[in-house]
Amino acid sequence: MRISPLTAGLIGGFTAAMLQALFKVFPPPAYGICIACHTRDLVNWIVNHLFGTSLGLAPVSKVFPVLTVVGIFIGALIGAFAHKEFKLKQTHNPVIGFILGILVINFALLMGGCPVRETLRTAYGDIVALISLIAMFAGVVVASEVYLKRNL
């Protein structure tokens, strides 16, 4: 059974709205599906409950963590297996990849750099978010050009 991206998005959005109403969960504006923020909240929630610390959490994650990141991972894994596209690949240097990943997530948290969050904030009328979104787009274009010129 094939589902179009539009249908999947409509089903996901409707389901999220219904669950929000059912469980009376009211996330802060522009929290959306920000991968950086949800990862931070998941890690901080686990650390807080294991070690009794008081690391910062969004109000929606105080009682139970938002498991968006886990859901996206499991959904992608199921999709890859269902379409026979799952392949394990070794990167050229896993340590550098790990360090770069940590840097990306930290800078995303520092600058509010999740594109989904920036788009939601722009929709709320935040001009700084619009500037950030344009800068992020320009950075991706410039970095892609540099990478492509160097590797082709």
Give the SSE layout.
Layout: H1 5-23, H2 35-51, H3 68-82, H4 94-111, H5 115-123, H6 127-151
Keywords: Membrane, Transmembrane, Transmembrane helix
Transmembrane segments: 63-82, 94-112, 127-148
Brief sketch in words of this structure:
This protein is mostly helical. The chain has helices spanning 5-23, 35-51, 68-82, 94-111, 115-123, 127-151. The longest helix has 25 residues, at 127-151.
Structural overview:
It is a single chain. This protein has a domain at 91-152. It is 68% helix and 0% strand. The chain contains six helices and no strands. Helix 5 (115-123) runs antiparallel to helix 6 (127-151). The longest helix is centred in the C-terminal third of the chain and has 25 residues, at 127-151. It is globular, with a radius of gyration of 18 Å. The model has no long low-confidence stretch (mean pLDDT 83). The chain crosses the membrane at residues 63-82, 94-112, 127-148.
Mean pLDDT: 83
Q: Helix count, per DSSP?
A: 6
What class would the helix/strand composition place it in? mainly alpha
Biggest pleated-sheet summary:
none
Task: Tell me roughly what share of residues is in helical segments.
Answer: 55-70%
| Strand runs, count | 0
Indicate the proportion of strand residues.
Answer: under 5%
Shape estimate = globular
Q: For the CA atoms, what is the radius of gyration? A: 18 Å
Which regions are unreliable across 5 or more consecutive residues at pLDDT < 50? none
Alpha-carbon distance between the termini?
Answer: 38 Å
Order of helices and strands: HHHHHH
Transmembrane segments: 63-82, 94-112, 127-148
Keywords: Membrane, Transmembrane, Transmembrane helix
